[in-house]
Write a sequence for this structure.
């Protein structure tokens, strides 16, 4: 991993570490994101009594820790493993995973431009780190049109190759809201009423589609890149469905739950 942060870590910061040594009452680690090392006392590895630290950590294992104390004069950093909850660990590991994805893209570009990986990484990271904490965040903004590699000051030769890969790898994932609609009516013009209701639903947005399932049942699918506009369109669909109901007609819509 090329990624390194400038300076030293701060107290309460979550950091990715790699275990280097294990003693009876302490664990020593390298803090991967910084050129630093630290120690985890046995009491900060896990709550409760610990008989053998090797039941919890092993040399070479990567773990997410919290910075407890920093003695800058002595150069000591105390960390905790047990004070990192599962959500914090998951979020931190996801950040690292995405940054490794960005680095993988840079490695691909280095082959295309026939330049050493470390050199290409420097040309990309230096201007990006002036505005972003992670390269991944910059790549995502480029893919979403929020910025461009030219604005960030990336070398033009590298920029041309990089932009193509970013647009391919960072395509936003689509989200789906779907459910089943059942329409019944005893109105003398019931067929037309159902037809108009379905047409009105489809006109809500290009992201809304209606599929016939048979027996007066339909499947409604709302496909978008963001839940906010998707939920707004669902509200419009629901309003149309509610208006269908009267003394002679009935509409039931059941939204499918996500697994």
């Amino acid at each position: 991993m090329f990624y390194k942060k400038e300076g030293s870590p701060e107290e309460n910061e979550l950091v990715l570490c790699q275990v280097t040594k294990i003693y009876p009452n302490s664990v020593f680690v390298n803090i991967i994101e910084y050129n630093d090392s630290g120690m985890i006392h046995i009491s900060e590895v896990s709550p409760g009594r610990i008989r053998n630290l090797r039941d919890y950590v092993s040399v070479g294992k990567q773990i997410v820790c919290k910075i407890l104390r920093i003695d800058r004069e002595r150069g000591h950093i105390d960390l905790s493993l047990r004070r990192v909850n599962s959500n914090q660990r998951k979020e931190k590991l996801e950040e690292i995973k995405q940054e490794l994805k960005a680095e993988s893209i840079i490695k691909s570009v280095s082959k295309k431009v026939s330049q050493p990986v470390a050199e290409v990484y420097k040309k990309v990271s230096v201007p990006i780190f002036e505005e972003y904490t992670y390269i991944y965040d910059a790549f995502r903004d480029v893919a979403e049109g929020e910025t461009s590699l030219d604005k960030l000051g990336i070398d033009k030769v590298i920029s041309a190759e990089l932009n193509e890969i970013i647009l391919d790898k960072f395509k936003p994932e689509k989200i789906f809201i779907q459910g089943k609609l059942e329409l019944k009516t005893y109105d003398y013009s019931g067929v037309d009423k159902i037809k108009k209701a379905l047409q009105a639903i489809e006109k809500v947005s290009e992201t809304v589609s209606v599929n016939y399932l048979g027996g007066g049942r339909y499947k409604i699918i709302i496909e978008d890149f963001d839940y906010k506009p998707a939920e707004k369109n669902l509200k419009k669909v629901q309003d149309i469905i509610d208006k269908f109901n009267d003394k002679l007609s009935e509409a039931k819509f059941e939204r499918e739950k996500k697994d």
